[in-house]
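Researcher: Let's try something more involved. This one mixes different molecule types, so please make sure each is placed in the same coordinate frame as the others.
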Amino acid sequence: MAEITLVEAVNLALARALADDERVLVFGEDVGHNGGVFRATLGLQARFGERRVRDTPLNEALIAGIAIGLAAQGLRPVAEIQFSGFIYPTVDQLVNHAGRLRNRTRGRLSCPMVIRAPNGGGIHAPEHHSESPEAIFAHTPGLRVVVPSSPARAYGLLLAAIRDPDPVVFLEPARLYRAVKEEVADDGEAAPLDVCYVLREGRDVTLVGWGAMVRECLAAAEALAAQGVSAEVIDVATLKPLDIASILDSVAKTGRCVIVQEAPLAVGVGAEIAAQLAEHGLLNLLAPVRRVAGYDTVMPLFRLEHAFLPDAARIAATVRELLEYA
Amino acid sequence: MNDVAHDEHRRQLLREMLRIRRFEEKSAELYTQEKIRGFMHLYVGEEAVAVGTLQALDADDAVVSTYREHGHALVRGIPARAVMAEMYGRQEGCSRGRGGSMHIFDAATRFCGGNAIVGGGLPLAVGLALADKLQGRARVSACLFGDGAVAEGEFHESLNLAALWKLPVLFLCENNFYAMGTALARAQSQPDLHLKAASYALGAEVVDGMDVLAVEAATRRAAQAVRGGGGPYFLELRTYRFSAHSMFDAQLYRDKAEVEDWRRRDPIVLFERQLRAAGVLDDATLARMEAEIAAEIAAAVAFAEAGSWEPVEDLTRFVYSEGPAP
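Model: All components are placed in one shared frame. Result:
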């Protein structure tokens, strides 16, 4: 079994899906001939042909729209948007059509499609190349929103997303594309959607994150352990629908929760998790629920990027504040 | 223009092209030293377009640009030191260190932005032009964009409305034949882009973008027509980028032989040869030019090196109005 990066795991899952299912199609800007801006689709066109791995012109709304049409005809489109900052023209198609096709036809049509995009900051680019727009899609009925946090998870979750009968927005943390390697078995096994993954068990606090923030949570947990604080780490993985039961179970045990999101703070997915903890888990809490997030501003240029992005130190400091309550 | 002025003007055109070339070469060097970070797109090979088009505009015209805009910014008159400081992310940069290479703005020269979103600037230019028309100003809004933008919906919406309402927009399409890694013929049903534009009932022509005099002459004619109330005009400027798309581009999508063919049409080499043949340029003049440019760029780098960083306390400023100045 080979050790591979997250972007190689995405490539491996796409290749597996293309090989296993004739209905799977991959398309987007520069995905074929050029192998994708981050090389996520490298070699797929050579292996599977131009019919199934296609370059499109630069038209994001159309990319999303034709995916809906293909999906409604029973195909399995997997479209790439080059950066999540370029995804906004697709919002009309995804919100008004992809997310509603099943509902408005009362189940007669469905929309089994995947829109993949590199997501988030930490790659020294400002603005449009470092966005975290997951909350827009998580707010939308009918869409699934999935964010992997490691190579193995990316492989399993992407296969699950492609096989899922509904539209999935699959946001890949760009800063993790080549950050770590791990063993990934190309066994065609999907990882379950709509469930959280407990990555580390703990007693004193629950750290909840997704995507690149999972690594920061794990690093914070490690630092806290050295200080005698036992942190549980949960990788949310599917942001919508949200597996709140797993988070509630964990917080019932630990009594404290820090939610870590890279996106700006206001009205993010973290706010939804915090609200549900307040509604369903308040009596188990020993301290207020806290969010460690990006700020309500635009991603700055490289110099201040580290100040914007939540990191293990900010998470650990917040945990120590919560421990003061007990 | 008398002969002496004409000769001086031609030397000035060459000087401006050289200025861009040397600025870009220095930028690439600084990027490898990690002085400039993030994404960066060089203009090497396309200099005749920036120089020919922007020299033909008036000082109060507006310029809407792309993410490959260092050359546009320099020719437009933004000081090289302000552009370089911006690329360093210094507060002394023309976007106060928040724009970086892709988002160069300058109110004084009405340089309304680099723009990382392909096609994102076209509607903006139409809006600027509508404001001028409504307010009775005979100004031109010049909008630069690449061949990739022609695929975006905004291109079509913008040309249609500008033509329908007879707005003073000068559409300047820098056709370098590649939308990042996708060749024009793989993305466009009609690769003669001026023909596509002409279908919106506006003046449209194709120009050799490697010939600075041809570009300048065509732009002067077109700008005059636009300024005179004749509605929008479209120039397809055929050019080629010698450098990679960005600093992370293995150029798998084009043959080295093709690049070499175009390099034989280097706009600077061709024009230099032309001026020498006409007896307008000699070695001493060229050496002086190069020395002046080198000094200007060295000063720009020194200015950027000496610049200051935005303090971390300012991370979330300028998201909303901070109220009237005290």
